[in-house]
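User: Could you write out the 3D structure of this protein bound to pyridoxal-5'-phosphate? I've included everything you need below.
Assistant: Certainly. Input first, then the structure.
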Amino acid sequence: MSYALGLRCLRCGQRYGLGMMFEGCPKCADPDIVSNLVVDYDYEKIRNVLSREVVSRRSSRLGVWRYRELLPVSDERHALSLGEGSTALLHSTSVGRKIGLRNLYLKDESRNPTWSFKDRFSAVAISKGLEFGVKTTAAASTGNLGASVAAYSAKAGVPSIILTIPTVPFTMLGLMRAYGAKVVAVTTPAGRWELMSKGVREYGWYPAGTYTTPPTGNPYGVQGYKTIGYELVEQLGWRSPDYIIQPTAYGEGLFGEWRGIKEFYDLGMVDSLPVMVAAEPEAGGPLYRSTLEPRETIARVQTKKSVAFSIAGSVTSYQALRAVKDSKGYSVLVSEEEILEAQSLIASCEGILAEASSAASVAAAKKMREEGRVDADAVVVCVLTSSGLKDLENRREQLANIPTVEPRWEDLERVLQTYYA
Ligand SMILES: *Cc1c(COP(=O)(O)O)cnc(C)c1O
Ligand SMILES: [Zn+2]
């Protein structure tokens, strides 16, 4: 089923077996960088079994396992699915017109089982955990990862522990608890990772997510994100987009998408590669900062409170840096106002309510166009990573004063005119 051969360091090339390695490459780790590990496959064999035609014939109901040869789970019985993936790619003509891009596409990841793209990660990470025979899964999460890990752990019949933030949105908390996770809010981000590290090292927790600085994380889960890249290529008629704009924190999504299209390219299934663009909030922006450094390093930044709380982190990963560098891409910083404006634009023009963090991708597209960094004809895909239903609290003020009337036509007419013009 799988053709996975082993793990490899992205930085020094050292190879390892397909083991429980979650803290990056020990060989080349230094104070500036700890590199991520990536799964390698037997591409010569895959070339003989996988083609455009083979992929096209497979049902979208297979979830991420539609691309099982390129995922690291060998026993089909462990391949968990809640029907993730195969999400819609929408040609967004109205938002496109407003921001000056004729070929703007939205990849709507809010259509996943727990309403975020993290489900692709969890499907693979937890399935691989079953192969390792894990007894408890754990994640440190501001919300989406926690909800997703909780759901896939429930499906796997394995208990999950989620360490979250005290300000976690009520909806996210509700999801995690409903799926049966043991949820604990920890007062500091560093503290969450310390506790998680102890749980992993001393109590056998299986980390479906990251807990080290810089984030090295679960290399198997990241493989799930490759399926976004595979789907995009097929949905565009076996073409790569010119740009993929991905809301970015640790850059696991960014790297996974890049890696997926690169694999299809190396297998001869697509003949060009995308430029990878990270969208980060001004309130954080560690990848942006890292790309400014003359020598290869992972910068740390101070963060502020942000409407884009899913992507307002203080540190990013080595693989994020590699995805932008290898694809000749970059990071775009967007302000709180630009993010909220993009969120409203997508909802009112396309009927999709994306999480504010997700809308950062469209805010970045607008900015790139304004700054002349992208042509009007370029094929640009903005990944909408999660649903706006997760953080409606953002809009509480806006929603507070909806007009109320007695059931009289004159009153209705009056408020339609005065309130909605
Ligand atoms: C996790 C998350 C991201 C960022 O993903 P990374 O892989 O950490 O860069 C973006 N958007 C949303 C909604 C998320 O939950
Ligand atoms: Zn290394």
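Residues 116, 118, 144-145, 247-254, 310-311, 355, 357-358, 385-386 surround pyridoxal-5'-phosphate (ligand 1) (CB under 6 Å).
User: Perfect, thank you.
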